Amino acid sequence: MVASSRGTDPLTREVVELIGAVVARYHEEYEQAAGRHALTGAQARVLGLLALEPVPMRKLALALRCEPSNVTGIVDRLEARGLVERRPDPADRRVKLAAATPEGRQTAERLRDALGFAREPLGQLTTAERTVLRDLLQQMLGTQTREGTTEGG
């Protein structure tokens, strides 16, 4: 049982605190890595998303859970640095896609490589342990499919 009339059980509290500590450490390392590239955390996150594939501006706003005008400002600053470009969507030329330039993809890769906090401890887990952890996290987020992969990915 997760909760009782008197509150959350000690194990659940401990897990929540550990998740919070992991998130805080990851966020701190991510901000430091972004800063080494003269980027804000939000700019680094947008660049990371765009390095995977070109994305419509509205979809970026949804992924970042922010207003489209905020995304426009972030993309403007990344575009001014030559890390991102805007282009028409081949499927609908009225829609603008934001896409990482070759330099932007290289910068995003260097950012990913700089994030050792999560990668190094995860590397100490067996493949089976990492799979269980992934599946549990997906279950918590409600993104697990029957095959154990994330929806949409």
From TrEMBL:
Domain HTH marR-type as annotated: residue spans: 8-142
A Pfam cross-reference name: MarR_2
SMART domains: HTH_MARR (SM00347)
InterPro entries named in the record: HTH_MarR-typ, MarR/SlyA-like, Tscrpt_reg_MarR-type_CS, WH-like_DNA-bd_sf, WH_DNA-bd_sf
Molecular function per GO: DNA binding; DNA-binding transcription factor activity
Alphabetically ordered keywords of this record: DNA-binding, Transcription, Transcription regulation
Keyword set includes DNA-binding: yes
Alphabetized PROSITE patterns for the sequence: HTH_MARR_1 (PS01117), HTH_MARR_2 (PS50995)
Gene Ontology biological process terms, A to Z: response to stress
Name listed for the protein in its UniProt record: MarR family transcriptional regulator
Organism ancestry: Bacteria, Bacillati, Actinomycetota, Actinomycetes, Kitasatosporales
